[in-house]
Amino acid sequence: MNDSRSSSMLLVRAASVALLLLLLLAVITSTCCPSRPRVSGPSSPPLAVNVSQHGPLPSLRFLTFNVYGPFSGSSNVRERLSDLVRYVGKYDVIAMQEVFTMSVFGVVIWGHQRWLVDRMREQGFTYHVVPPDPWFGQNAGLLIVSRFPLTEAVWLPYTDWSGIDMWTWKGSIFADLEISDRLSRLKVGNTHLQCGKGRTLHSIQPRNWWLMGLEAFFLHLSSYAVNSCGIYTRSVRQSQVSEIVRHIRETVGLKLQEQHLLCDRCKLGGILLVGDLNIDARHQLKAYQAANRTLNPLEDILLAEQISKGQAVSFTDRNATDIIGFESLDYAWFSSVRSQQLANSSYVYVSGSAQVFGLKAFNETYGVGENKFISDHLALELQIKPVNA
Ligand SMILES: *[C@@H]1O[C@H](CO)[C@@H](O)[C@H](O)[C@H]1NC(C)=O
Ligand SMILES: *[C@@H]1O[C@H](CO)[C@@H](O)[C@H](O)[C@H]1NC(C)=O
Ligand SMILES: *[C@@H]1O[C@H](CO)[C@@H](O)[C@H](O)[C@H]1NC(C)=O
Ligand SMILES: *[C@@H]1O[C@H](CO)[C@@H](O)[C@H](O)[C@H]1NC(C)=O
Ligand SMILES: *[C@@H]1O[C@H](CO)[C@@H](O)[C@H](O)[C@H]1NC(C)=O
């Protein structure tokens, strides 16, 4: 073995060891220092709606949108987000995915999250919830902005992940939307599940994070190079759906038990879960049905609405001529909460209000795909309204 060969081998080894140490540190710091989601808004929120005791109650207009903003692989993020801000006037609550931040050694080195939160505040979205920034890598990319107070924010990090998502701290965020002191709250969840189209090979044990990390790094990085997010992604997504449901069961279960003790505005009247599930109802029917069973009694609004039989295309990829690129990934799942303890209000979906649609870029030069949209995803809007019980 000659000198230059052995010194380059040494370099490769040193680099691998450094990387592993980094990974280890990242996992250790993230598990030993659980962080809370950041919530903002005036400390004693003015209740924005003057709910008349007579007459119709107002509908709440929701938008959920994957804005396509990863640290690596996207361009003109700021321009496209600026365009989004020009569209948001008519909504009350907006849930976004892929508003990623990138952190190195606990310092955010990249991202448009703060900028976007400020622009949204200028548009009247006084309240927001974001997931914590990790010690290393991308955060979950989630953001909820709202014109009405968001309370009891929760960050639920997923314990199960695969492949390239080792660099992205996927999870979901929840908060209760409080629209007036006479109405019960609506629990809103926003999530972005594991990426990738991989087959189910076996289920990954959540606790084996270090094995998964090694496996993910050495095995899956190569598959990422050919545009995959890892090979176990279907089972990972299903397990993430289960984690969401477990969380909802626990929090909602507790709330319902003490509902009769709570003030009107502290009660719970509905649950809305939105986001990019990365489960393609068009091409992965079995995976979709499994998620649908787990999420029950939450109901898929697009399916309930018979919008393309629940298979509305919400993702067109960068290349719209590639038929595989037409996928249904974005959803809104909803359930009313009715119980005897519920004093006088609950939430219902406003029939006919859901639709999936593209948002055009204001300047074609940075529009995405053939349609020149501002993201590779389409947006999903819907309305939920409080009703007197
Ligand atoms: C709310 O409605 C009441 C009764 O109609 C009215 O007197 C009051 O001025 C309204 N408050 C606001 C802030 O609009
Ligand atoms: C709910 O009940 C309380 C008193 O029990 C009442 O003040 C309030 O106006 C009611 N809200 C609605 C929306 O009917
Ligand atoms: C989804 O779940 C609901 C409730 O369990 C069921 O009625 C419906 O048929 C399911 N839809 C599909 C496509 O599996
Ligand atoms: C788009 O997809 C088609 C079909 O897979 C392929 O032939 C074409 O080269 C792709 N175009 C681009 C710009 O990637
Ligand atoms: C679109 O962007 C290009 C490049 O920045 C610029 O030259 C052009 O004037 C812009 N068009 C419009 C309509 O703003």
From TrEMBL:
Keywords (A to Z) from UniProt:
Signal
Q: Which residues form the Endonuclease/exonuclease/phosphatase domain?
A: 63-377
Q: Which InterPro entries match?
A: Endo/exonu/phosph_ase_sf, Endo/exonuclease/phosphatase, Sph/SMPD2-like
User: What Gene3D superfamilies does the record tag this protein with?
Assistant: Endonuclease/exonuclease/phosphatase
| GO molecular function annotations of the record | sphingomyelin phosphodiesterase activity
Q: Signal sequence: where?
A: 1-30
Q: Which PANTHER family match?
A: SPHINGOMYELINASE C 1, SPHINGOMYELINASE FAMILY MEMBER
The family annotation for this protein states: Belongs to the neutral sphingomyelinase family.
State what protein this is by name.
Endonuclease/exonuclease/phosphatase domain-containing protein
Origin species, per record, is Guillardia theta (strain CCMP2712) (Cryptophyte)
